[in-house]
Amino acid sequence: MAALGMWLLLPRGGARGRSVGAVLAVMALGLGASRMPRLGDWVGQSVFSILAVVTVIAAAATVSFRKPVYCAIWFGLTLLGVAGLFLLIGAQFLAVATIVVYAGAILVTFLFVLMLANQEGNTIYDRVSWEAILSAAAGMVIVGVLSLTIGSVFSTLPAMDARQISVSSPEQLAQGVLSPNHVASFGMELFGRHLIAIEVAGVLLLAALVGAAAIVAHNQRVQGLGFRIQDSSPTSLPKSESQTPNPKSQVLNPEP
Amino acid sequence: MPAEIALLNNYLIVGAVLFGIGLIGFLSRRNMIVMFLAAEMMLQGVSLSLVAWSRFHNDFGGQMLVIFIIAIAACEAAVVLALVITLFQRRGQLDVADWQTLRESDQPPFQDKPLSQTPGEQPESWPRLTPAGIAPDVPPEKIDYRPKV
Q: A3 — phi, psi (to 5°)?
């Protein structure tokens, strides 16, 4: 698993070697998938495999594509995959809620990309990433550690014998999480035990709404509606910053 | 390995992979919108494992947590997009490196390497407009606009 992480170091960020990186990532994905234990029935196994592979590939594409529009689209595919996985494990309401909530979020993000970003993705900040190797190493080390821990715990489970860990039987599941009237029991739980948390979440949503409006309104009051173009010199930089060559990244062909 | 435990194991691993990819994206991308997407992806990974635990323990607690995660993510999206608009209005681009004056004082500044056009990439092209009217009589040293736009 750790070796797979090391392979995955290559693809991020740079312009060269992206195809090699993609091939390596797919190989790592396949190897990792071959280590995973089989589910019981082949239908569930195949559906799970397809959904998981789609989700992971879309996630990797989200962070590695250059054009932000494609990033948003691939992130939508990731969300669809996650919603499918929710549905497969029996969380129907969450699957639908994810799609409904995040469809709006994706749409707004898409709008933002269309308004603000450079469509071609050839600005320097889309082409060059921060410490690509370090961040890829960090992420893959985390994935490796997590999956090793999970794997070791579950591989020692049969030795620990079934007394300590209680696997729910299908009958229990059918009365609990997988009950036919899923949404009803879900709502009972949500507005029974977690009623206060729901209220707090509502207040938090309101606060976030007011906060977002306040941020934008304050900014427009400070700045007027004026719009600073890229090549205007930054006025309030400290001295040490203005002595160094201007680290602002430049758009290759600045718009007139 | 029983099927339920295998299911839990697989879901946890997929959640971990999503979280790791989101972490990589958040650390390495410089476009603010893409960073936002990567943060959302980390939330997705966590909620996937929470739902898996909820199934395993036959309890709705994990799914409740995911509901709250979705609510928090909506709040976060609102605030983040407001901040992105603000920062974009200040500097006119989405680069995070633009705000590196906020770094700690003992850190060296981040410098962009000069980057040539990659071979497969076309330079940005502007549409050629039909000339209309008479060209104004401006001495060439005073021309500060582009002759072709």
A: -65, -35
